[in-house]
Design brief:
Blueprint (H helix, E strand, L loop, with lengths): L7 E5 L3 H17 L5 E6 L19 E5 L23 H9 L10 H6 L5 E3 H18 L4 E6 L3 E5 L6 E5 L6 E3 L1 E4 L10 H13 L2 E3 L17 E5 L3 H10 L6 E4 L5 E4 L6 E5 L27 H8 L7 H24 L8 H10 L5 H10 L9 H5 L10 H19 L6 H16 L7 H11 L4 H12 L3 E5 L3 E5 L4 E5 L8 E3 L1 E4 L13 H8 L18 E3 L5 E7 L20 H20 L29
Parallel strand pairs: 1-2, 1-9, 2-5, 9-21, 10-19, 11-14, 11-19, 14-15
Antiparallel strand pairs: 3-4, 6-7, 7-8, 12-13, 16-17, 17-18, 20-21
Length: 639
Amino acid sequence: MNASARPSVVLVGAGPRGTGLIERIAANAPELYGDTPLDLHVVDPHPPGGGRIWRHDQSPLLWMNSTAEDVTMFTDESVEQAGPVRPGPSLAEWAEAVRAGEIAVDPGLAEAVAALGPRDFAGRRLQSAYLGWVYERAVAALPPSVAVHEHRRPAVRVSGSREGRQQVWLAGRPAPLLADLVVLALGHLDSELPPDQQELSDFAARHGLLHLPPAFTADSDLSALRPGEPVLVRGFGLAFVDLMVLLTEGRGGSYTEGPDGQLTYRPSGREPVLHVGSRRGVPYHSKIGYRLSGERPPVPRFFGPEQVDELLARPGGVDFRRDVWPLIGKELGFAHYHRLFTAHPERTRMNRADFEEKYALADPAGPALGALVAAAVPDPADRLDLDALDDPLAGVRYPDGEALQEGLRGYIEADLARRHDPAHSPDLAVFLALLSVYGQLVRIGDRGPWWHGFFSYLASGPPGPRLRQLLALSRAGVVRFLGAGTTVLADERRGVFRAGSAGLPGEWVEARALVEARLPEPTVERTRDPLLRGLYADGAAATPAGLLAVDPTDARILNRSGSPHPRRFALGPHTDARSGGAFARPRTNAPAFRQNDATARTLLSFLRDRAAPTAPASRVPVPAARTAPTPEEPHAADH
């Protein structure tokens, strides 16, 4: 078969999402595609497996925020998919195999592998090695007739009619890649500044200040943040934790642990003083530090496929707050109270079966549900209050700045204690229910920024050791808390940034540097990615929040009339079907795995159904390859 006529798929993005799709193509190919030739072009300027976010080339001080046993790239029996399960090791199991000599890694990682236990938080460099290994394994599992071509360049444009082959143009390459199908697995992208951020950037330029807009922290140039100077930081999630690490340990500071287990920070003298605040005014909740024993919460119960079907069938569309949130609240409450009744029955005063029967009948938005919980659970501390969780400092005022620092340290200490105490195991049940809810919401599409932030705040917080370090930095005066309801102003008269909060009315902190500690919003209108921006300009649909609209069944890109493109697909955080992550906790029916399987099967079925009959000689298997065999071929690899 002429190389240019061979079936071809271009996958733009070789990070964990693209790697997961390749794994699913390999798993489904024997059933759906057989030994028909196929060119698979993998396009990414960064090394495959880790991609940009999980590349090896970043600070060794940066960690994952999930334990090693809670990270896998492989499907299991929990995943609702049409394709076969192909088991594989979690990060913890992979590290064990490395220690046993069954898998080879860079010798520079030997110490990190040796120290990694199942409940430890791996460094991102180690995760990069795991992802690279998964990529190699996925490529090796492809049928021999599939040739894999890596292109270490960015893709800049896709053209072609809906009925014909697509052309994928790469930076610096004069001829396009020809593709029967194109899949975008772009991951997190840089963005042009929205109006409010542009105003702050312009203000900083006028007054000789420093404004660092939302960005992936590991890519930010922090060198201009000077030792000892006050720096305003807006955002208290994982981006802040990375910033905190890079500006403290990353500048030579260190920690010592006292006999009571408390950490003390020893400054290097090169640290700025970080004044951090956010809407909530508190960091994301610590990762839970114990395993669930006994029965898992039987979810979904009140927010499952049946309820989603009903929501999608409603005329006039779905309003998240009005239609969806009450069902989510009932689901989370069910998981919480199921665990309380089964694991801690002494803290309840009602028969469990009676409670669950009445709970099932109660209107999720009505007063009867609250009355039932009050009657069955005597201690308010054992009741699930989602509003209080979302806004823990609502109405709290402090008399002065030092009282605010002490109050926030007390809050963080209490959170650490609770999240590491199995007596509060309903918290872990709620976490598992959150994962279930996220998986159901994929079908509904764009939920707006509030839900994603709430989910991340409860379920994607930092490791406990990071919060212990935060407390030490606070005691050392390197980190100062601003409080809830943080407001940042650009003071033209004084030529400085000013920050205050609702927790300390009337008091302001001035600084010549402002850091926005969060990722850019993944909007197609403002993305700096020319490929995605071009698709939007050519008619691809976006949601009201700016996410690329895709068909929830197989990730085909939708146009503005709602029709799916037959040859273009998109997966990841820039789409309205974005899931919690490209890798997942084992046995949680991860939505990303389900999406990858559905997309892989659609790709293979499309190619199979359109494959022209060929003579036997043309069906001789082509050896699987990381690159094309010769540079003269139309699909030769670019490096």
